[in-house]
Amino acid sequence: MWLSIPHSSVTDLPEGTYQSDKMNSGEPIGLNNNLKNVFSIIEENGEPVLKITGEIFGCISSKASYSNYHLSVLFKWGDKKWEPRLDKKRDSGILYHCYGPHGRFWNTWKTCLEYQVQESDLGDFIPLGGNSAKPKVGSPITDIRGGFKEEKRFDPNSEVYSEGKGYIHAASEHDKPHGEWNLLEIYVIGNNAVHLVNGEIVMVVENARKHDGTILNEGEIQIQSEAAECYYKQLTLTPIKKFPKFISKNVRFKE
After folding, report:
1. Bridge partners of 201?
2. Strand order in 69-81's β-sheet?
């Protein structure tokens, strides 16, 4: 696991721990130092659940890199929120095809593709670059259907592709009420990915490349802590050789 810079409002930290209102400057806590028990495994109804307090920005990370898989996990929100997002939507995220050193983005996450996990925004897409790296590193490059003239939103019916820069909204929202479990899924084949929320296809990310233009078809997986209490359970990662029929039938990939 990796923890970033604790916000200045966080209490009961070891003496000398660097804190700041800005997460993107200063010395992060770093690897394998689970201060404040930000990440823990609890038991709920007889099964293990990953609890993320969100009190300090950070992530848990796979050690291995993965390609060609189906990721499935159940997710729900808790009630607590923390600075600096007390007045913002609850936020987390599943980061895939992660590469490079820890803390490249905001001293917290790797360069990657993000399946956004945010209130009313499940399955949105964000490419995270390396704004904390020296020198800075650009974000991954992707192609997403949609004209993006009025709003950056994936449009499965569009004949136009746009470069997937910045925050891209999902085609539709399928969040369950607060406190209920949501099924989050990512299907990955090569450098194409499909985001699903509660069984509905909401985002298709195509032709992913690293900032230098080389193909981005594998990477580590991270789960974010981002100022909101949340829970994950029943996470599975299943190798696949091709997209399942329901995706091939309903998704138009670039030829």
Report:
1. 196
2. 39-44, 47-52, 228-239, 69-81, 182-189, 192-197, 200-209, 141-145, 161-163
Residue with tokens 């406190």: 179
CB 197 within 8 A of CB 121: no
Residue with tokens 């995706």: 247
Strand partners, 3: 30, 58
The answer to the question of residue 45 being in a domain is no
User: Residue 28: inside a domain, yes or no?
Assistant: no
Torsion sign across C-alpha atoms 97, 133, 90, 2: positive
| pLDDT tens digits, 178-204 | 999 999 999 999 999 999 999 999 999
Structural domain range at position 199: 60-250
* Contacts (Cβ under 8 Å, ≥6 apart) of 54: 38, 80, 81, 82, 92, 225, 226, 227, 228, 229, 230
In a domain, 90, yes or no: yes
CA dihedral 209, 214, 220, 222 (to 10 degrees): -30
What is the tally of structural domains in the chain? 1
Given this model, what pLDDT does residue 21 score?
93
Is 54 domain-assigned? Answer: no
CATH number at residue 91: 2.60.120.560
Which residue stretches of the chain are H helix?
245-250
- Encoded tokens for 99: 């590469």
